[in-house]
Amino acid sequence: MAEIIYGSELSKELKDEMKETIEKYKAEGHRAPCLAVILVGNDPASESYVKGKDKACHAIGIDSKPIFLDASISQEELEKIITDLSNDDSVDGILLQLPLPKDLDEASAIQCIHPDKDVDGLHPVNFGYFFLNEPNFVPCTPLGIMELLKRMECDLDGKNAVVIGRSKLVGTPVARLLQNANATVTICHSHTKDLAAVCKQADVLIAAIGRPKMITKEYVKDGAYVIDVGVNRLDDGTLCGDVDFDDVFETAYKITPVPKGVGPMTICMLLRNTLTSYERRVIQ
Ligand code: NAP
Question: Which of 261, 227, 275, 228 is closest to 11 using CA atoms?
């Protein structure tokens, strides 16, 4: 029977520590950290993510600056807003909520975020530094996964880690972090042959696919650490991960649930990156 490791509990502890740190800075006379979150259009899922981030910021004393823009905004206007925030000394972090409406160029907009305020770790300069092993900001979900593995007391040195998914946001960067922690890493994707057999070799299995309950016990080695990144909405409105939790529960050693697993850690790492940016800019 697996031990369930809740990101919701770990993130609460980490947020409490950050709250204390921020209170100390404020008591010393410093301004609050500030995160600007830009949402273009009114996609309901994105709106709820932005509201969640706003609430999480306020709860620990970070000023949140949500900016809601009409879907009809031009590329030029959007980039001007991002550039102005990049030049605004009172802003420590900038997050552009993705995806953008399809007429807008995401890559070009992201490049307007100053790399030192790119708390989502998506700017190509930050990606470059990360892959040169000189990280500035690293994407939040992979950071959250590494914190969960730490909480699982998983010593990655020499372990076989399999990551299913190779996206820029999750699969590719988490594989790099695992490799940096001396795991032997295999990255799988939709062209991988005999995925179950590859996964069955994994001491550490990270599922970042976007396919509800695809990972059953046939994919999981006895005693594996399993991190479920997937967030999938079922027809009945409930959320589930990429891992069939009930099926894998007896096989895995430690496992994260969905919800209350990786999701809360992603927001928590966004707050931590914002605090880091603030400390570099304001406290040093
Ligand atoms: P993505 O960009 O769609 O990437 C999915 C990856 O899974 C791709 O590399 C794809 O392979 C691979 N894949 C798809 N079907 C597969 C199959 N049948 N067998 C093996 N590999 C397969 O998604 P993402 O942004 O990485 O997100 C993945 C999941 O994590 C989604 O459910 C998303 O909602 C969730 N997520 C959660 C958080 C959080 O905070 N909890 C954050 C980000 C994402 P190809 O490259 O060959 O297409």
Answer: 261
Instruction: Give me the CATH number covering residue 108.
Output: 3.40.50.10860
Active-site residue identified among 65, 92, 97, 217: 97
Residues with CB under 6 A from ligand 1: 141, 164-167, 169-171, 188-192, 195, 208-211, 229-232, 262-263, 266
pLDDT tens digit at each of 284 positions of the chain:
899 999 999 999 999 999 999 999 999 999 999 999 999 999 988 999 999 999 999 999 999 999 999 999 999 999 999 999 999 999 999 999 999 999 999 999 999 999 999 999 999 999 999 999 999 999 999 999 999 999 999 999 999 999 999 999 999 999 999 999 999 999 999 999 999 999 999 999 999 999 999 999 999 999 999 999 999 999 999 999 999 999 999 999 999 999 999 999 999 999 999 999 999 999 97
Domain that holds residue 250: 140-263
Structural domain contains residue 241 = yes
Indicate the residue type of 260: K
182 lies in the same domain as 89: no
Query: 111 an active-site residue?
Result: no
Question: Collapsing DSSP states into helix, strand and coil, what is residue 3?
Answer: strand
Are the C-beta atoms of 39 and 47 separated by less than 8 Å?
Answer: yes
Tell which residue, 132, 140, 100, has the closest CA to residue 276: 140
Question: Does a structural domain hold residue 54?
Answer: yes
Best of 8, 122, 140, 190 for a ligand 1 pocket test (most atoms within 8 Å of beta carbon)? 190
| Statement to judge: residues 144 and 226 lie in one domain | yes
Atom of ligand 1 nearest to the CA of 191: 47
Token pair 């947020």 in the structure block, residue: 15
Q: Are residue 61 and residue 148 in the same domain, yes or no?
A: no
